[in-house]
Amino acid sequence: MSSTITLKSDVILGVVPTHIKFVGGLVPDDDGKLPRDDHGTLIVVSEMAHLCQASPVKIGAVQISTFPGVAASDTDDMISGLRELDLEIHIIMMVGGANPLNPADEDKVVELLSDGINTAKKYGITNVASTSFEEWMSGAPAKEGAEYDAAVEQLAKVHARVYNDCNIADSCIEHWHLEFLRGIEFATFTNIPKAWKVIERANQIVGSKFFLLMVDAAHCGDSGLTIPENESAIAELAAANEMGLFHASAKTTRGCLTTDDGWIGALLASAAKTGQLKHAFVELFHHEDVALETLRDAVDGHGVDTTDGRSYSEVVIDGLVDVGRRLNNLKARGLL
Fold it and tell me: Are strands 12-16 and 61-66 parallel, antiparallel or unpaired?
């Protein structure tokens, strides 16, 4: 449809299409092939085409998950299909089968991240992201004291090595946004202050403000810190020029944004006040995604069906309208 809500700020509104499920939507099969619909179109492309047509607010960007080993022809189809929709493409690199905190796994982690970086370079993508702080759902104890300091140094070393090995300084890539996760998903790097240390150290090594820390409202909400504590951390992060993109996602349920209990509004406003908010992405997860079953089993309240009779596409569109209106009113109030 024609957009009926005009975005009035310079913030680019986007979608992280995790609502189509990792298994059956985003993850390649054993042959490296990505899921396609009955018409032979990649599901991620057909869903973004549907959202772009149906949303009353313009979608300007998409952040897609990338996995090592995807067939080159499918990656070509995905990138070209999304660009035909006039979308700015971001990628979030998925790292599995290796622990970024373990020096013995360093070469493997560098290999996996380099694969994603080289994909970004091939297609002229300017913003990449990853959740490469630690192994997902490891069950490991939280690192403290000297162990925490060593973990920060190892992570900074790994990411700086990828930066240098892939010659990122002379590439199209402008920023790498690292995303911390909630407790249980991660053990140590579960809030802004803890994760920020890695960003600071990595930037010291490469000599620029290349690495940024993503602000995800859901992970902040489940971090154990209060809204005021997160607001203060966001202000400090931005003052150091190390604040990355924003994820508008509901804490705990990771479903409809109406389940978020105020976190998105408060933290979006905090990010806006810094003057450094460039991108805001709506992100929901499907409550029956097989890939997230272990997380649903581990976290009370995660995976609740919050659709309330709507399709997931409709729930995402409602989120886009909500965040679009918030951005417009932040602009009207002089906060953007």
Answer: parallel
Contact status, residue 87 vs residue 48, Cβ threshold 8 Å: yes
At 2-60, the pLDDT tens digits run 568 999 999 999 999 999 999 999 999 999 999 999 999 999 999 999 999 999 999 99
Question: Which two tokens mark 62?
Answer: 């998409």
Nearest to 155 by CA among 172, 140, 143, 167: 143
Average pLDDT over residues 267-274: 98
For residues 216 and 248, what is the distance between their CA atoms, to the nearest angstrom? 7
Rounded-to-integer distance, Cα 132 and Cα 134, Å:
6
- Which element (helix H / strand E) includes 151? helix 145-165
d(CA 110, CA 108) in angstroms, rounded, equals 5
End-to-end CA distance of the chain: 27
HSE toward the beta carbon, residue 301, CA cutoff 13 A: 10
